[in-house]
Design brief:
The chain is of the alpha+beta class. An 8-stranded mixed beta sheet has the order 5-4-3-6-2-1-7-8. A 5-stranded mixed beta sheet has the order 9-10-13-11-12, sandwiched between helices. A 4-stranded antiparallel beta sheet has the order 16-17-18-22. It starts with 8 loop residues before the first helix and ends with a helix. Bound molecules: adenosine-5'-diphosphate (ADP) and magnesium ion (MG). The site of magnesium ion has 5 residues, from α2.
């Protein structure tokens, strides 16, 4: 008995397929790339069950002759290179000749394709990579590929697919990247009657940003274009005032290819650093052009990382360009403001600007903690049931906020320090924690409903939670496409924060493994955090008192929902030790 066997071809194909086809989104990526390589300017992607039962991609590209089509599904069959030197002049997305072979090895695949010249098209059906049926068929120029029941013959891989919403979001991301990087091509993504993305040929990059990253990101963007040495940089970056909770809206393309790159993320962050609140990130959609010798774009189909020859140089080129652009916004803004002044008195302008700016900030961050039904007042167990004055007696007269985050109360023999965000988060958590699907929390109707134009990926999540968040007091109505209208919010959320709270919730939720988590519980945690005052928010004396009062009524006032401490006490005894008296 020989131990070593040469593997059968179909087994080899299935194993190899694993490297190219990880999940439905990778099929979408490969097939859209093929359509782009074929010169299509109209690409329609239709999926069912987040791509696991069907992925159909139709293009109006050059099509294939019947002979080419049959060859195309064999491993290492490509029209894009014929020898190793061709790699250096490559201007197509594919060249390895693996995608069709790999995908057809792990699915049931229909291909319909026709070239301009051919009198009729070809229909083929493949199962596990083998052609089972073929016949002539009518079609206009182009190619339609249908991938059914992905991984039907590789159960082990099928098991590894994530929850449907996760796979769907990944497909939306992949198609979104093509929309951003290929203006001039009409690209559409639908599932059943739901259209997730639809960019038409005429739309420019900024309009495409609106579709892919949402109206909020779009509205905060400014254009950027610069050339330095061998580097070119084009695209959009956000104004420093328009930041996000995650880096998700930072998208980079190097020489036209989507890449993930720590260096580029860092460069963007660095450019804004002094202007950012902690935990906030700017948005950016940037196209970076470098001489081919300066970069090693790893062309492995599933790897998106990129390596630059001179990372320091790349970083400084980006930081320079972005910083310059941001500086110019500040100048533009000042000029606009000066121009809009009724009696322009140049010497007064800077002072006025400063004062006005301060007012705005103050307004945005004033919270209603008073006993009146504000923040949490509507719940009888919380504020409102006890007048602030009563509580005052237990609080020493002295109360301070330091570092924009810590409330300090000197007592007789100790010092109490409270982290305002952690404290409010705890209060909110216990408040929202009472929510159940049967017994929703009280909501507060908005005088002016707020329209949210979400990024496609966010709308996938919104669709999932729209029923659940009613329990917390939100009332959100789908308004077609990726647009939603917010009619009501929990009484604990301030009107002026509605948009950012909802978007932050969606962004937080995107990083939660929903397969494991209890959705309502996750929502409660996230909403508590998002609705809570933040470090850096200035508080008045009354607000501090009210916050401490509400904290004192919590069941677990000593830690925030993430387990971090809310309060610290420093005793005189400890002070004596620190001053080495003891
Ligand atoms: P690669 O793209 O690396 O060449 P693929 O397996 O993705 O390998 O495709 C193999 C070949 O099939 C391509 O080189 C191309 O000639 C042809 N092909 C695939 N998809 C299309 C399409 N949508 N339109 C026209 N030709 C296509
Ligand atoms: Mg290809």
């Amino acid at each position: 008995m020989q131990k070593i066997k040469v593997l059968r071809n179909d087994v080899v194909d299935q194993i190899a397929a694993g490297e190219v086809v990880e999940r439905p989104a990778s099929v979408v990526k490969e097939l859209v790339e093929n359509a782009i390589d074929a010169g299509a300017d109209n690409i329609e992607v239709e999926i069912e069950a987040a791509g696991s039962s069907l992925i159909r991609i139709a293009d109006n590209g050059e099509g294939m002759t019947p002979d080419d089509a049959k060859l195309a599904c064999q491993r290492h069959a490509t029209s894009k290179i014929s020898n190793i030197h061709d790699l250096e002049r490559l201007n197509t997305l594919g060249f390895r000749g693996e995608a069709l072979a790999s995908i057809s090895a792990v699915s049931q695949m229909d291909i319909i394709t026709k070239t301009e010249e051919a009198s009729s098209g070809l229909y083929m059906y493949l199962e596990s990579g083998q052609v089972q049926k073929e016949r002539p068929i009518g079609r206009s120029r182009g190619t339609t590929i249908e991938v059914r029941n992905l991984f039907y013959n590789v159960p082990a891989r099928k098991k590894f697919l994530k929850k449907e919403s996760t796979e769907l979001a990944e497909i939306v991301n992949v198609v979104g990247r093509f929309i951003l990087s290929y203006p001039g091509i009409t690209i559409k993504l639908t599932q059943g009657s739901r259209c997730f993305l639809h960019a038409t040929r005429e739309m420019d990059l900024l309009e495409r940003i609106r579709i892919v990253l949402g109206g909020e990101v779009h509205d905060g963007m400014v254009e950027l274009s610069s050339r330095q040495d061998k580097f070119g940089l084009n695209g959009y970056v956000s104004k420093p005032s328009a930041t996000r909770k995650t880096r998700r809206s930072q998208v980079f393309f190097v020489n036209g290819r989507f890449v993930k790159s720590r260096v580029l993320n860092d460069a963007v962050y660095e450019s804004y650093r002094s202007m950012l609140e902690r935990g906030r990130y700017p948005s950016a959609v940037l196209f970076f052009e470098v001489a081919p010798g300066e970069v090693d774009v790893n062309v492995h189909p599933t790897k998106l990382e990129v390596k630059f020859d001179d990372e320091k140089k790349v970083k400084s080129v980006l930081v320079n360009a972005i910083k310059n652009r941001i500086d110019s916004i500040k100048v533009e803004d000042k000029e606009k403001e000066a121009a809009s002044r009724l009696a322009p008195e140049p010497s007064e302008t800077p002072e006025n600007t400063a004062i006005q700016g301060e007012d705005e900030i103050q307004d945005e961050f004033s919270y209603d903690f008073s006993g009146s039904p504000g923040a949490l007042g509507r719940d009888s167990a919380h504020a409102g049931s006890l007048p602030v004055d009563n509580f005052l007696k237990s609080v020493s007269d002295e109360i301070y906020q330091i570092g924009g985050c810590y409330i300090v109360e000197p007592k007789n023999d100790h010092l109490v320090i409270t982290d305002q965000h952690a404290a409010h988060e705890r209060i909110m958590y216990e408040f929202f924690g009472k929510a159940t699907e049967e017994k929703p929390l009280e909501k507060q109707k908005l005088l002016f409903p707020v329209t949210l134009e979400l990024a496609a990926g966010q709308s996938v999540l919104m669709e999932k939670i729209v029923g659940k968040i009613t329990a917390l007091g939100f009332e959100v109505e789908p308004f077609g496409g990726t647009t939603y209208i917010i009619h009501a919010v929990p009484s604990a959320v301030k009107d002026s924060d509605v948009k950012s709270v909802v978007i932050d919730i969606l962004e937080d939720l995107a990083s939660v493994d929903l397969k494991r988590a209890d959705l309502l519980d996750e929502l409660i945690k996230i909403t508590s955090c998002r609705a809570a005052i933040k470090a850096g928010d200035p508080l008045t004396r009354d607000e501090m008192i009210s916050l401490l009062e509400q904290l004192s009524k919590c069941d677990l006032p000593f830690t925030c929902p993430h387990g971090r401490p809310v309060k610290l006490e420093i005793t005189v005894d400890e002070l004596e030790k620190r001053f080495r008296r003891k």
